[in-house]
Amino acid sequence: MSEVRVRGRAETGLKFHGETRALRVKMVLLGSSGVGKSSLALRFSKDEFKASAPTVGCAYLTQVVCLHDATLRFEIWDTAGQEKYHSVTPLYYRGAHAALVVYDITKRESFIRAQLWLKELEKQYIPGETEVVLVGNKMDLPDDREVSLQEGRSLAERGGLLFMETSAKSGEQMNELLLTIGSNPEHKIRIMQLLERNRV
Amino acid sequence: MGTKTLRPTIPCFLFGCADLCDRARVPFTTRASKKSLRSMKGLCLTLEPATVMEADVHKMSVPLENGSLAPVDRLRSERSDSPTPGLVEGTEPGAGQDSAMFVHAQSFEDLTAEGEQGQEQEEVQEEEEGESERAPEFGELGDSEETQEPEGKEEQEQEERENEKEEEDQSGSGRAKEEDVNSEAWRRHRKHVFVLSEAGKPIYSRYGTEEALSSTMGVMMALVSFVEAEKNIIRSIHADGYKVVFLRKSPLVLVGVSRCRQSERELTRELLYIYYQIISLLTLTQLNHIFQHKQNYDLRRLLAGSEHLTDNLLRLLDRDPGLLLSAVTCLPLASSSRDVISSSLQAAKAKSLVFSILLAGSRLVTLVRKKDQFLHHMDLHLLFNLVGSSSSFREGEGWTPICLPKFNMAGFFHAHISYLEPASELCLILVSTDREDFFNLSDCKRRFLERLRRRSSYQALQEAVQAPSYPVSQVGIPELRHFVYKSKSSGLYTSPEIPVPYKCEEEEERLMDLYQYLHSRMHHPTRPLRSIYHCAEKENLLAYVTSGFELYLCFSPLGTKALAVSAVNKLLKWIRKEEDRLFILNPQTY
What sequence ranges are listed for the domain FUZ/MON1/HPS1 first Longin (chain B) (predicted)? Predict the structure, then answer.
């Protein structure tokens, strides 16, 4: 885990005097209501866990991450899972570098909805531009599991996506999730190339 | 209009000749205030002016000897130090300088509401127009009243309240959804609210699950349709101490069941709030579209995750005097600080920006609006409710579509909602017309904050937010426990912090209940009152309404009527003295 360090902005500034500007990574969290998108975003940005009320509309968070030799500025769009907001969500995943489609491993319905989200996403993204990660959240509740690890994995494989099970509550696998996005050998090169082009 | 001045009303006698003079538009001599003088000279002079002014009327033309180069509209206009109760609207303490921030007029939708419903809307809206205009024929009887609460009644109510409290404790925090709808506890709730579609499908219930109530809601819809078949409209049913109020707002039907003392009209108004809450999430256009295509659509699907907004709104309706009075309260703040904040907000504008609103909890700090665009207080309350019931804006910047139904039922605005600091109560709402404009507005916020941080006003603002509101003892009226004062022309109200006897939740609610009851009586559709003195079991209350303001006072049981009456003038004088701090006197536009 030494490769990924989640740090505050001030700290990263000190570490990378040479790097004046961070690379921008637009990341969007999608999935049905109550799967833990906001909790993942909060764990990601502040390394905290709080029970939260349903997101209204969309929340925008930023987080600076140091990855090897680069500073990445993650711009996270945490969308509301509620159906009434769906008409506006394409705004957020358009042009995203990474899209996390989240489901709740204790709710089969959310897994089915995740498949719909993936279909929706396929229409929007050009392969190679957006890194899609299927995330099964709430792995801290193994007793209530309704969707097996294998099911998730095979869905991801079929679509050629990355896959990860996490727990926003315990923080388990969160760093791995970042690593998955950032340092899967071949994906990483792609991301870095992508980011290089987007260097502001 | 003849009846207005000739009608012999008790308050006329009570409040003396100043009132009469003013009502008859006879100039009345007062001393100009030191404050107004200060603003004229820009210095702290303590001259005793010998000018004779017409009572409480703004002098919009600044006298030549002014000597100040400040633009005219930036000056606090000359106001009387001793406002009289018979003020004309627009000159009461707290009235804005030029134009108000809020719309008072009915929205287009209210004006075009069909038939009977439309009339009822008008009645609701007319509250703001002042009751004296609609003096009933039998006005000679005098429209002031004194009431004595029958003993025992309150005790009984108290008991019921306590019962309910216990139940709530049992059910724990959050939504008491899993309640058994056949239980006695469920029946005993003080106010039920149901929303259903015209097909009789449940959409929302305050208590209990909608599924369990589908047959009950079916019966409600049957009642509505049955009466409608006879070309009539069902408004309410009164039976066994309960009021059942129906509000038909196609494609929705709202039903309230209450055993409070609130009038049918007040309950209808509350239902209207719930209706607007639903519209604010979906727009009327979308709602109509859905039900045109599928009559038996289950709207709960679209409203999922927003039930807590409606729950919270209902709680606000029970507790917040602002929703009762159709007004908003301001954070007490020195006007110089407020002006700096307003101008910083004014400077951080964007093309698509319509309103910039800074809140401290549920209190307004300032509001800047586009020229010629007004915000309705109901819309503002919906925004308060949205911010107050969602934690999601705390973590990052929120960006959400929202319909402001009183502004436009058909379309969405897009609101950028964020707290100035993570742990702060200060929340900035930027309302835009462009759904792609997030980064622009985010930049507006950054600019505003940068500008503000350079000024000392930010410190003052943060201190004001931390400090408790003012205690009633500041007013210096013995036996006065609490009051609510609303300036009608500005749509703003002020109220001291809740005093000790009402600090606990149930007592606070009881006080609100009393205010609600008085409000109901004052704004009775056929027999409105101008004043009412009410002896409740644990306190004495006086309510007083003029064309300029609305005032509710709560005294200890030791307070007498004479004391209460004399308190009005004294309180008005105090509010006038403090109005710079308590109200927003010069609202800004971009």
Answer: 191-313
